[in-house]
Design a protein that fits this description.
CATH architecture of the largest domain: Orthogonal Bundle
Helix content: over 70%
Structural class: mainly alpha
Distance between the termini: 49 Å
Order of helices and strands: HHHHHHHHHHHHH
CATH superfamily of the largest domain: MetI-like
Number of strands: 0
CATH topology of the largest domain: MetI-like fold
Strand content: under 5%
Oligomer: single chain
Length: about 300
């Protein structure tokens, strides 16, 4: 009796068991697939189709040609500059913070504290973030008033304006820097101690180690994270709209105006604007995925 129970199941039983396991796996992933279909794939297809239609539903390329109007090209260019500035500055500061907590020899409690804050701050955006910066660095904000009252220094007298290019870039840095810390920390953790020990044995200095060993390995991760920060800022609208309104002509605000129809109302041109944004963010995300793959091969 014990020998019969110890016998392996028949091939048909094995196949049935594998089928049931695969079926339950698909049941587990089904909510994600439905969510992606409803809120990512179908809306994207709707935008692509609408970008090549006129208001009557006929095929046209006029919406694509209209993207090259000076006002629209200017909006794209301002968005690219804001996204690029916040991505580069955020990458530099985020790299410094990640290096400090991973390799800087700081007290152990600083790393979990920074990672917890970064996890929260990287998702803090929209109206709350805009209000926080207005209450802090606005013309009557707390920091502005303190600087004037106790130090006699008015930041707005120097030409600074929160409702401007650099003001929006500064606001974006609040979630860009933590995102860089979260993404780059695992890459710094992946630097093997043996590599540094080998370089020291061979007589390399700290500078030579970073130039010839660490940076070539980390460079795909750093560049990929910077591209991801660019895409993250390029698609942001809630923070920019709540902070600057229509005073800064970035592409997301122009898209919002086209579809909402307060002054402008050409939904199909809005779909074409969104199609252009999808193309730009798709290229940056594709480059990020490729660079991440190269980095993971080194750090594996």
């Amino acid at each position: 009796m014990s020998q019969q129970n110890s016998n392996p199941p028949a091939p048909a039983g094995v196949a049935r068991l594998q089928f049931m396991q695969a079926a339950w796996a698909w049941v587990g992933v089904a909510p994600f697939l439905v969510f992606a279909l409803m809120f990512l794939i179908l809306p994207t297809l709707y935008l692509i189709i609408g970008g090549f239609q006129d208001p009557d539903g006929n095929f046209t390329l006029q919406n694509i040609f209209d993207l090259f109007q000076p006002s629209i090209m200017s909006a794209y260019w301002i968005s690219i500059k804001v996204s690029g500035a916040s991505a580069i500055v955020g990458a530099l500061i985020g790299f410094g913070l990640a290096y400090a907590v991973v390799l800087g020899g700081l007290p152990g409690w600083i790393r979990p504290t920074l990672m917890t804050f970064s996890g929260v701050a990287s998702n803090f955006a929209g109206l709350p973030l805009a209000f926080a910066f207005l209450a802090t660095l606005g013309r009557t904000g707390l920091v502005t008033v303190i600087l004037v009252k106790f130090f006699g220094f008015n930041i707005y007298a120097t030409g600074f304006n929160l409702l401007s290019f650099w003001g929006l870039t500064l606001t974006y840095l609040y979630f860009q820097i933590p995102l860089m810390v979260l993404i780059l920390t695992p890459a710094l953790d992946g630097l093997k101690r043996e590599w540094r020990e080998a370089s020291e044995i061979l007589g390399a200095s700290v500078f030579q180690y970073w130039v010839h060993v660490a940076f070539p390995i980390l460079w795909p991760s750093i560049l990929g994270c910077t591209l991801l920060l660019f895409a993250n800022a390029f698609g942001a609208i809630a923070t920019a709209y709540a902070l600057t309104g229509s005073s800064l002509n970035i592409i997301t605000i122009l898209l919002y105006a086209q579809i909402r129809g307060d002054v402008l109302h050409n939904p199909n041109l809005g779909y074409a604007l969104a199609l252009g944004m999808i193309f730009i963010t798709g290229c940056t995300n594709g480059a990020y995925i490729w660079l991440r793959g190269r980095s993971e091969r080194w750090l594996r």
